[in-house]
What does this fold into?
Amino acid sequence: MGKKERVTVRICVGTACFVQGGADLLLYHEFLDPVVLANCEIEGVSCLGKCKQSDANARAPFVQIGSVIYGDMTQERFCTLLAEAVNA
Amino acid sequence: MLEMNNQYTLIKRRVQTEVLKHFFDDTLVESADKIPFQIIPKERVPNRCCIYKERAMIRYRIMAMLGIDIERYDDEMKSLSEYVKEVLEKDTPPVPILTTISTACSSCPPDRYLISDACRGCFARPCLANCPKDCITFINGQARIDEARCIRCGKCKDVCPFHAVVHIPVPCEEACPVNAVEKNKDGYVEIDYKKCISCGRCAMSCPFGAIVERSGLIPVVKMLKAKEHVTAMIAPAIEGQFPGTLAQIKGALLASGFSSVVEVSQGAETTSVHEAEELTSRKESKAGYMTTSCCPAYMEIVDKHLPFLDGRRSVALSPMGYTARWSKAQHAGTKTVFIGPCLAKKVEAAKTADVDGVITFSELASLFMAKGIDVREMEGADLGDTALFEDCREFALSSGVAASVLRRLDNPQDVDVLSIDGIDKKMFRTMKVWEKRPPEADLVEVMCCEGGCINGPGTVVKPSVAIRLRGGNKASTPVKAMRDPIPRG
It folds into this structure.
């Protein structure tokens, strides 16, 4: 079995995301499962641009996992989604 | 205390952002009454009983944001636009800072201990053995608490191996260190302003959002819109509250319309120097312990509850006081706005002629969002020569004030320091005892919020996040030649 690609994760640290709870995600070292963490490449990025679209279905904070952008991110949802992405 | 980010804080920020957007677009008067409907659309699945109550609550949040004392001046017949017209014409007096929304209050029953179904009716029965009032009985093999005799000591909860005992608190009453939050005869929350120290703990702990702070945003944005010369005085705790460096935060403030930005750490330096001098002379004359004087909630405690500490606190002004004085001297006619994590600072500011407005970090976040300003995208502004007071940014952290004072002493090793890291009910009782038994220390540093100002009620992020992000700008700020008139130990 070949070595699996690490999942690219981009946490938006634009002001809107940051102050609406995105800042909590930056503690990922503390709340994320170490095994999942080892298989992820996590970085903070400037605004993903999603908050500027008037999309009532999703709100800040936004996170991009692989190529998909998710809104309304919480620490718990972040854990679940990352675990899924890593094990996919 | 509630988690920093919850439904309530998020919706509060949305309300503030919407109101500010309309304010800057000059559409607030006509749109104010529509905002509750925009924020709570009819498709929403409500957290409260129905969307109609949620909309009514949004109305109250807008009123709090306008600075209206809801407890006293709630007129249900009056539209929001009428309130808006009034506050746009005339600023509301800022004190009292906290007000209550009785219809939001869930009138929680008195706090009690309850034994849940998790009770296994064990053989050892430590609850029974440890209850000092013999109020535990066993019915059908499960423990029960006799409410009439229970003194709510919590011993049964501590000893139960199955965690079967639950404590159901009244969050606001439990959070208040000075017992200023009480239920009125109808069971709704009321604040006794003769006792209240404006620390904001109750507002942070109520899960129904029934205790709210009256915002000081409107007077400040009015100054900005009128293009007056406004000086933003940023508290030492601001670093870490927003993404980006301190220089970028300064840039963002300038972009939002403030004319100049000054760090309150600069005033903190002056405070430290004065406190160091005072401490030295007190030690020489064997006058006993001295307390710091920068925490405004602590100052309220002394004024309202512990008058014997009056002569114990340092006579130095708070960092905000010195910074405001300096700013006024720098630019005649400037309006000074303190931006910090603290609600009690609004009380202090109301007593100080040099301070014209106070907003919290949380309110500043709403201002940035309304103006579409992204701190991290900002060009960093020049912070100037910060070498003299850089270490005083530590004022935001517990034991940081004492450390700054010690650095300005000739013999810091001779000074015993006691740090009061947060005042809760128990600490308040301890402090009462000081009248008879003084603390064994020369310098007592008092912080009403646990962990220091970075845990204040007006912060944006958790202290753990803030600490991670603090100090990041140090590398980018070159250490300039020390201009150092003060001898350090």
